[in-house]
Please model this.
Amino acid sequence: MKINRRIGLDDAQMLFDLNTKSNVGATTAYNIISDLNGGFSLVGPSSIDFQNFRRDMNRYVGESDAHIFIENLLQKQEVLPNFTCEYKCGNDGTLLGVFWSDYVSKFNYQEFGDIVSFDATYKTNKYKIVFVPLTGIDNHKKLVFFGAALLTGESIESFNWFLDCFLKTFGNEPSLVVTDHDPGMKEVGHELYDTPNFSDRMNLIFWNQQQTPEKFETRWKSFIDDYKLHEVRWFDDMYKIKEMWVPCFFMDTPMNALMRTSSLSESENAFFSKCKNRCSTLVDFY
Model:
């Protein structure tokens, strides 16, 4: 009977958690709940009812998605001590960015905030908003979390706003920020990678921790001349900012467990991957 096909609060919560935390669809969630209850006949609702319930949840969220998401964070700010939430909207009311950090994250930054790594290279939900977790390393070489942001784009304006929120929240700058560079290396082309010794020689110049800045300049010039890379813009751009990424130019800076790339923050991203679902709403993400 129809009255027995209603989805109870417990089943609704499990359906929501399975979908948002484990990327499990409504039909698979129905099968899991049926197994936990001892069989399909003991559940009541059918798989179609679960699918309709999921559809109705998304319809309820609808255009209020961003508003509900921000309201949840603001309520958290009122209830939790030392919880910070900042957000930015466009002239038309569109959500452009959100930044948040709790008291544990702020404590982590006070103790281990010398080096900060962030990787904004993957999308989070159906709006293709970029998720930017801030990561550091503690005294045991374990990853710690400082805060996070959601940005609608990777523009200079977006990152300026994000970094302003960062300084406003923590009050001081880190001594070093590690992040990925724009993937402009594609401009070089695959034919160079097939050239004998190209990759080995490039790595020797870029990542040699023993060489001096003077030795780098000599090797760089020889490298560019030998492979005729004078007209390749990527190498020219990277040379102009060499003090920001070539290790020999900041050898005196403590690197916190040799945190010279964003590979460690990428492993932190694996932890947050359960939040990543191209079909999720912002409420699902929250």
Remarks:
- Confidence is low (pLDDT under 50) at residues 183-187.
